Amino acid sequence: MASAPFRFVTQISITQITHWKAKNIHELLSCLKEVPGSVIYHHTHRFLKQHQFLSPEPPNDFAYWVDTALQDEKLAEKLFAIDTIRFPTIRDIREKIIQTIENHLISYNNYHDAPEGDEFYFKQSISFVLPTPYEAWNLSEFAKALKKVSINSLYHHIFEARIRPPLGINDFSNWFETALGETKLAKDVAKMDPYTHTLEGLRQQVIHLVERRIQEMMRV
């Protein structure tokens, strides 16, 4: 029995266009230093939620725009290489993107403007967290609930949890370790690579790990 239950929540997100936009790399860099964290989050994480059954791509909107609108393949490759999921905070992601662009501009000072109509429009995600009827006091109840909750709930607990305290850890792993003392299970879930799974694939993988642990406990 857990010291505290795991309460599944879900979320509704809406996309809002901001007043920031960029037509070249210098304007993009300037905006990146000013926009709220919710803007950075939207352009580096929204693709994960959009891919329920397909493998997620690309890693971030900034890299895609630099490649297609500015046709700066060298910088695009550097931005594509940034693993945004591995950063514990949005601030860290922002600083890494800014640093990558600034370092690139030392050697390649690109003043090329995007074609008219292809400017980068900064958007932000606004999320509303809602309760669900599902909660779990043990691994068996957790597995049953995880099979029923929505993709939005899964996304909230795995991805958005990484930028909330405790930083860098998903809600499932945090509960497994702190409420159940299941350190190994917590680590197994935490080390899953989200880039190799769809959201449905992630659900099935977590269920598999939990049910495997249940079987191990039954044999003892």
Order of helices and strands: EHHHHHEHHHHH
Rg to the nearest angstrom?
A: 20 Å
DSSP helical segment count: 10
- The coarse silhouette is elongated
- Low-pLDDT runs: none
**What share of residues are in beta strands?**
15-25%
Number of strands: 2
Short account of what is shown:
With 220 residues, this protein is an alpha+beta fold.
Provide a descriptive summary of the structure in words:
The protein is α+β, with helices and mostly antiparallel strands. A two-stranded antiparallel sheet has the order 1-2. The chain has helices at residues 25-32, 37-50, 61-68, 73-80, 90-107, 139-146, 151-158, 171-178, 183-190, 199-219; strands spanning 6-22, 120-136. It is elongated. The protein folds into 2 domains: 6-11 and 127-219, no CATH class; 15-123, no CATH class. Helices cover 50% and strands 15% of the residues.
Which characteristics define this entry?
single chain; 220 residues; alpha+beta; 2 domains; two-stranded antiparallel ribbon; 2 strands; elongated
Write the layout of secondary structure elements.
Elements: E1 6-22, H1 25-32, H2 37-50, H3 61-68, H4 73-80, H5 90-107, E2 120-136, H6 139-146, H7 151-158, H8 171-178, H9 183-190, H10 199-219
Helix pairs in contact: 2-5, 3-4, 4-5, 6-10, 8-9
